[in-house]
Amino acid sequence: MSLVEARDAGAIGLFGERYGERVLVYAIGDFSREICGGPHVARTAELGRFHVVKDEAVGAGVRRIRAVLEPAAGKGDA
Question: How far apart are the first and last CA of the chain?
Fold first, then answer.
């Protein structure tokens, strides 16, 4: 949908005006509705193992988790 439609539907965006004209809106029931410029992977399982490096509150009842991917076994080995 358009960014305007997403905002009118109650979706929030955390990155200011960095979104394009068309966005995706992800919802978790009535709990959360957020704007996303597009998914990076279809499922978190595609990421493999990752390590949480930061966990912070960004609002009442809202957390942001930052993580780094661990190198995949056998990839990048010479």
Answer: 45
pLDDT digits (tens, 9 = 90+) for 14-47: 766 677 788 888 887 888 888 876 556 777 778 7
Q: Which residue has the tokens 């399982």?
A: 45
Cβ atoms of 35 and 11 closer than 8 Å? yes
Kindly report the pTM of this predicted structure: 0.45
H-helix or E-strand spanning residue 28: strand 24-28
Six-digit token string for 58:
């960004």
**Residue 67 contacts residue 44 (beta carbons within 8 Å):** no
C-beta neighbour count of 5 within 10 angstroms: 12
